[in-house]
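Lab manual, section 2.4: Encoding a predicted structure.

Procedure: take the sequence of the chain (327 residues), apply the prediction step described in section 2.3, and record the output as structure tokens. A sample record is shown.
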Amino acid sequence: MKLAIDAMGGDLAPVAPVHATIECAAKFSDTEFILIGHEAKIREAGGTFPANVRVVHTDVTIETGDEPVRAVRRKPNSSLVMAATMVKESAADVMLSAGSTGALVASGLLAIGRLQGIDRPALAPVLPTFNGKGVLLLDAGATMDANAHNLLQYAQMGCAYSRQVRDIPNPRVALLNVGTEPGKGNALTKEAFQLLESSSLDFVGNIEAREVLDGDADVVVCDGFVGNVVLKLIEGVGLGIFGLLKEQLTSSFTSKLGAVMLKPSLRGIRDKFDYAEYGAAPFLGVNGGCLKAHGSSSKRAWVVALEQARKFAAQDLIGQFSHELKD
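Recorded output:
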């Protein structure tokens, strides 16, 4: 297996991706890890590399402020686009980046291309749940104007991914809606409900946004506009709550004393909602492995994402998707 890694993408690049790659390369001798980026900076960050790590040099990167489609077209030698091109040309099985989400989506569409039968791919992050198992949400922002058939395909691909990568034998699928009753929602969700209900999937019905993190479904589908709003709202609320807790628990001597006693419990809550343990978000529906790590991924988050990328490649998920879509 070969993994193409955008070593220059993300807040902690190249140190975090390089250190994580070295750790994973020592663990998985059957995998070639291809670090793409500024060679001098990569080697300075990592020192001595295992034999199964290769560096491909480029000093071109896609910056946060770049317009995604224009950047992908004008910067074919950027580390992110080169990783996608390797997947397109079968020089790598999976690409992984913590860079611009928009640029990764554009690279997936323009450089790798859509999977046959898919016209609206989906970004599929795993959200933390209160039971610690996580839930796959798709689409989280790749396609804003999906139709009902697209949502059915999201569910099919999400189930295949959940079985092969997340080890869930029979994933439960729910449709994100404004109410749990079958007749709720707009024209899109009403039509999607009918398609999902008549499919062979384990469809558990509509789910409201307040129930998404309860863990009652393994795959939740919606259009990209709604999914992106949900994703960012959850991130914002989570950061706000933890920030408020920190402020309150350090506001006085008594609070600090209580914080010492509560520290183990608070650490358990933090770990359960730590994005680093949930890996990267796959871009499902493109004709190759394409994964997006969190922009502020630490070494630990990169290690989890790299292990996930290996599993993606080993399970022949592209073939699995094609099979699912025929059913």
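Check your result against the sample. The chain has a mean pLDDT of 89.
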